[in-house]
Design brief:
Blueprint lengths: L3 E4 L6 E4 L9 H13 L1 E4 L6 H11 L18 E5 L24 E8 L7 E5 H6 L3 H8 L2 E4 L1 H8 L5 H7 L10 E4 L1 E3 L6 E3 L6 E4 L4 H15 L5 E4 L6 E5 L3 E5 L8 E8 L7
Parallel strand pairs: 2-3
Antiparallel strand pairs: 1-2, 3-13, 4-15, 5-13, 5-15, 6-12, 6-14, 7-8, 7-11, 9-10
Bound molecules: N-oxalylglycine (OGA) and manganese (II) ion.
Length: 279
């Protein structure tokens, strides 16, 4: 059966059929990486991907990048558990973000597999940073092209987690956080695969523009965070048992919806290493 890639019709995302991710042939990986660069996020239904197959599939796409902050899955350290328990009030990733933008070479993307879903809710929203960039005025595009921005893991995992109740924090995250030095990326990057311009700042990790104070940066960053989450640029994915999503971190944001209080949700995430990004 051939691979079929059906765009969602929204600003980003495509449904992929004709592939069993648990039995991947090597030829599929180039097609998927290219499709990711084009559509930003790929969705798969009715997949049978036990942890070993999840890891093998990830390795067929690239090198695995183990998240430094999450508590690892005990049997499979390559897999990050994205877990919400009934008593939790926060969910992981509930602000719009891209994974690992605080690294010198930000992650290419992540592969999220649904393991246990709430009876309703728990969708994931995605937003296209190609569309967000394209919709800006020529004047704003030119201004942003002259800027670089600072991305900080301390912002999310230091300042951010300090607001989370301690019991929720200690269960999900390591006791000691390996904060790296802040990194700087261009505000507008060229996507490494598609070559298209992308708006590359995000609410969780971008703290200021290089050479600007946080206070000076805040109004323009706030505008970009609001702009990037315009409904026009988004697609909302509803999980079912057997669903898998792969997103490209360089051209999308994502956000976990916190709307299933009192229920359990467990996802397995494997993150893929990326390359340094440039304007
Ligand atoms: C993540 C994440 C979203 C979700 O795993 O990086 O943000 O819906 N997850 O669980
Ligand atoms: Mn995330």
């Amino acid at each position: 059966m051939g691979i079929d890639i059906e765009p969602t019709g929204a600003a980003l995302g495509a449904f992929v059929s004709g592939l069993e991710l648990g039995k991947l042939d090597a030829d599929a990986s180039d097609t998927l990486i290219e499709a990711l660069g084009e559509h930003g996020v790929l969705f798969f239904r009715d997949q049978d991907v036990p942890p070993e197959a999840h890891i093998a599939f990830a390795e067929s796409l690239g090198e695995i990048d183990v998240n430094a902050f999450f508590s690892p899955n005990e049997m499979y350290p390559q897999i990050a558990e994205v877990r919400t328990r009934p008593e939790n009030t926060y969910v992981i990733g509930e602000a719009w973000h891209t994974d690992h933008s605080y690294e010198e070479a930000p992650a290419l993307g992540s592969i999220l597999v649904a393991r246990q879903l709430p009876s309703r809710g728990g969708d994931t929203a995605f937003s296209s940073m190609y569309a967000a960039y394209d919709a800006l005025s020529d004047g704003m595009k030119e201004t942003l092209r002259g800027l670089r921005a600072v991305h900080s893991s301390y912002e999310a995992f230091g300042v951010g987690l300090s607001k989370m109740p301690e019991a929720e924090r200690t269960e999900r995250f390591k006791d000691e956080y390996p904060f790296g030095p802040d990194v700087v990326h261009p505000v507008v990057i060229s996507h490494p695969v598609s070559g298209r311009p992308v708006l590359y700042v995000n609410r969780s990790f971008t703290t200021r523009f290089e050479g600007w104070t946080e206070r000076e940066s805040r109004p323009l960053l706030e505008y970009l965070f609001e702009h990037g989450s315009s409904v026009e640029f988004t697609y909302r994915f509803s999980w079912e048992p057997g669903s898998v999503a792969i997103w490209d971190n360089r051209c999308t944001w994502h956000k976990a919806l916190n709307d299933y209080r009192g229920e359990t949700r467990l996802m397995h995430r494997i993150t893929l290493k990326g390359c340094p990004i440039a304007a």
